[in-house]
Amino acid sequence: MESKNPVFSRQSNGQQQAWGAPTPTPDQLQGMYDRPAYAPPAQRTMTIDDVVVRGFITLGTLVVSAAVAWALNLGTAALLVGVIAGLVLGLIVSFKQSTNPVLILGYAVSYGVAIGVISHMYNDLYNGIVFQAVVGTALAFAAMLAVYSLRIIRVTPKFTKFVVAAGLGLMGLMLVNWIATFFIEDGIGIRSGGPLAYVFSIAAILIGCFFLLLDFDAVEQGVRAGAPEKYSWLMAFGLTVTLVWIYLEILRLLSYFSSSD
C-alpha cells in the first residue's frame, strides 16, 4: 500500500529514479533466488585416447627428428646441442610439471636429433643394430603394457619408492663412472663391455621397464581423478622419456654382444 507520508513518497520516488527501476516485489525476489547460479563451462577431462594421441605426436616428432639427423649425418656438435637442449627442456617440464606442448615437443626435437646421431654412429659400427634395438624397445613396451593390464605387477606406493630409488641409484653410478673416467680408462667398469657392464645394462633396462609401469599407473590415476585434458601432454612426455631410456640401454647392450662376436 502506498504511503500518504510525503517524506516516504519522496524517498520512494528518489529510489526509483536512482535505480532506474521500481523496487522488486517479493515474488520477483523469490524468482531471483530460485534461478540456478551461473556455472562456467566444465573443462574437459583427460581420457586414454588423449594420452594415446599426444603420445603418438610426441614420439612421432622425436622419430622424425632422429630420421632427419640420421639422413643428414649430423656430427658430434649436433649431438651435444641436442643432448643439452633436451636435458634443459626435460628438467623444466619435469620440475614444473609443465603441460606446455611447445616445451614437450621441443624436448622431442632436441633428443630426437641426439638419438639420430647416436643411432647412426652405432649402426656404422654394428650394421642392423638400430633395427634390433627398435624392435626390442617395442617388445618391452608391449610386454609391460600386458603386465600392467593383467595386474601381474601392481603399482603400490612401496613399489613406486623402490623404482624411483633404483633409478636414482643408476644415475648416481653413471655419474661416478663418468667422473672416474678422468682418472681410469674404463671408469668403474659399468660401460666397458665387460661382465659388470652386462649386468648394469640389464638392470637399467629392467628399471626402465618398471618406470613404464609407473607411467601407465599415472595415466590411469589421472583419468580416474578427472585431470584436465592438458595433462595428457605431461603423460605423453613421461612415456617418451622412458622409451628413450630403454632404447638407448638396449642399443648399448646389443653393442656388447656384437663386439664380442
Q: Specify the overall morphology.
A: globular
What is the CA-CA span between the terminal residues? Answer: 107 Å
- Extended strand count: 0
Biggest beta sheet attributes: none
Query: Could you list the spans in which at least 5 consecutive residues all have pLDDT below 50?
Result: 1-21
What is the helix content? over 70%
H and E string: HHHHHHHHH
Structural class: mainly alpha
Beta-strand residue percentage: under 5%
Mean pLDDT: 85
Report on this structure.
The radius of gyration is 30 Å and the shape is globular. Helices cover 77% and strands 0% of the residues. With 261 residues, it is mainly alpha-helical. The N terminus is likely disordered.
What is the topological layout?
Elements: H1 6-19, H2 26-34, H3 48-72, H4 76-96, H5 101-125, H6 129-149, H7 157-180, H8 195-225, H9 231-260
Helix pairs in contact: 3-5, 3-9, 4-5, 5-9, 6-8, 6-9, 7-8, 8-9
In short:
This protein is mainly α and 261 residues long. It has helices at 6-19, 26-34, 48-72, 76-96, 101-125, 129-149, 157-180, 195-225, 231-260. The chain starts with 5 loop residues before the first helix and ends with a helix.
